[in-house]
Structures
1.
Amino acid sequence: MLKIRDLEAWYGTSYVLQKVDIDVERGEIVCLIGRNGAGKTTTLKSVIGLVEKVRGSVMFEGEEMLNLPAHARFHRGLAYVPEERRIVPGLDVRDNLRLGLIASKLKHREAELVAEATKIFPRLAERINQNAITLSGGEQQMLAIARALIARPKLIMLDEPSEGIMPVLVDEMFDLFRQLKAQGVTILLVEQNVERALSVADRAYVIDHGVIVHHASAEALLADAEIQEKYCAV
Amino acid sequence: MADLTLQLLGLQLFTGIALGALYVLLAIGLSLIFGMLTVVNFAHGAFYMLGAYVGLWLLMHGVNFWTALILVPLAIGALGLLVERTLIRPLYGRGLDYPLLLTFGLSYMIVELVRVFFGNTGYPVDTPDVLQGAVDIGVGYFPLYRLFVIAATVVVLVGLWLFLERTSFGLIVRAGARDPEIVRILGVNIARVWLIVFGIGTGLAGLAGLLAAPLQGVIPEMGGPILAESFVVTVVGGMGSLLGAVVAGLLVGVVVSMTSLFAPEMSRVAIFALMAIVLLLRPQGFFGRAGLMS
């Protein structure tokens, strides 16, 4: 479904991704792990179109994404939840959710889809008219995920979704990932919480200094203390 | 004597509000454009002047004032679309100074072109017949046309507010001013949004120019001073804040008109003094977000 080949990326003159290859098949949860600064976020941002200097190939359902502007990639079915969540301050929770549909062809079903999202995330229902910036970190993360899911993407990429969130919400979130997988949504996940991430993932890639250094099934990697120690210990 | 002074103050207050209404129309456009596109539009005064001249040209060719009131913002807005699409768009992502210098140069070219076609001297513009005369507003007789300027501005503001708060495009504008990247990855072609916002801003400047024409006549240089004053308004109100533009626009209008009552020679300096005080006490302006310019 997603085929990343020889992906290179630069920030200014620093060479961040040095030929990355990643495959994600339909319905899989694939995890990308590695230390801070290894290139995880840059990989996701390159796929969604937020890195200016990129080279290589990102094929999504047989179509080259690197030639498309970011907004066109949304319409192909790609979604991205950034690490900083990027809830729009000043807008209430409902408007943040509506924003997820604003350019979508599902926009005419807005009322129904917003209601559905609040059913999946009951915490958001209680705060639907509240300025989104007043939500707790975990609630903001839920809102960011809901906003990305509301237009029914085919593949969703999440950057450190469990970071700084209280454990009970982390549990809810990983349950949600399992449900999404069951519904056929494909997930590319970047996580610091490696054990947790591997417990829901099918496969995992390990990235270090902009290079994929290891690739294995989630089970195998979970059992591989040496690799975990070498590339993932914080 | 006390009565007379109170009356005079009252009338001067209304004069200030009418003047402030023009500032508001200009500052809202400047603020929208800066908030969304981070372009400091130095050609805004030139668009204002062009609005007055296009209005004058229409009136000279037998178009009535009310029709001109619709046509002028459309024409200047369309010109704004053209300018954004062809001149400003290639400069995005290069920082504040490129579009600033471009629009600065553009304003000189527009002023020069108007001089070529209309000459260096100004023209008076008649107040439309039905808006001539004065009405009793309780504190005395006030020119009907100035009341009309205030009313027209209120109508535009209410329309703009409804547009921003009640439409999908308005939601995109509100969100895009805060976080354009998020709006892009949610499927919005932000370049198109910027184009339209620039057109709306310049259209409002054109409208302000037409509204100002019967008050002060038209000359090619009319955009310069009011641009400087409108920048003061956006800075005092807070760059990027529409509410700030409204509040500060009215405040600056009233300050100008009050100081010209008591100390006419100080009226132009007074607003810069006001700006200095506001910036000392609150560097981001009344409703601005801190750090927007850094």
Note: Chain A touches chain B at residues 48-50, 69-71, 73-75, 79-80, 82, 86, 88-91, 95, 98-100, 102-104, 107, 147, 151 (CB under 8 Å).
2.
Amino acid sequence: MTPHDLDALGALTRDYAAFQTRKSGLATALGGLMAVALAVGSLSPLFMGARLGHRLLLEYLVWTPLLWLLLKEFLARALYRGAGAVKALPDGAYERRRWFWIFGLAMFLLAVGLTGLYAFARGLLQAHAPRGCVPAPPLWLLAMPPVYLLAMPWAIRGIEEARVYAVLVGQSVLWFLPFFLFYFAAPTPPLKTGWGLFGDLLGVSILVLWYLVMIWGALAMVRGWKEHRDFRRLLGTLP
Amino acid sequence: MSTIKPDLHAILDLDRIVHEPARLAILTVLAAAEAVEFLFLQRITGLSKGNLSSHTQKLEAAGFLETLKAFRGRIPVTSFQITEDGRAALHAYHKQLRALLPKEGKP
């Protein structure tokens, strides 16, 4: 056994361990697909008010990030731990970056949750008439930001997963937050006066975000598939 | 009376526990991760269960690795972790081995 063989053995172990902590393979591709599906679904002009059975479609869509967390765990167990579990060596810089993502997402969710609560409280306190243009949002939706938040530290293993989760959570809250703003706190009457420059800026921002999500989703699908192919190749090199 | 050449001295000084190929492979794999499950060690080294157990026991007795027992659901799972002594022994072995091997371009 030469030093070269030993180095190769170490590298193989590190690569395999990466799939149990940092790389997600097909889970990344699935996240990209879900992000694109959410973005495409949002194109429907009736999306916000669309119904599935007796419930708003939105009430199902807000579970997308949590569904992805479950599926990614299932994929990890089914596909990437078949040859045994390997825990990667700790990497301080990487862990700091992971916590940076988790903290950033936590701050975002806090802001979204508080905005939703503010909209609800403002509607109640100022006795604004609920808007007729959107259906009444179920109040349990306000509990989603803390639920997303609580699931994070345990379920997010790497930065790649944090990115996917951030995109899915970001999209989910982007679709349900306007319900609270429109229904409980929209300035009256917004439809006659319009929102002026603010409305235009908001529209352009959402359009830019929409394109970014579509591009990111497509790239995530390619990257995830490539990682999965690399893993299959890696498994093939094991004796 | 014959004298031992310095090169041969260096070879004889190699740590026998680490020098055995199977144990060297085990330590190399363990050094590349924080903890490694028995199944993966078996797959990557190509050793049989009994053989792997015997080598890991020798390494544990030498203080080069720790055995971690846990349960996944109801299934017992055995993992291994290299110790500081094990890492130091492997490092020293690598250093000795590289010193012994002929440099590139020299016989």
Note: Chain A has one domain: 9-237.
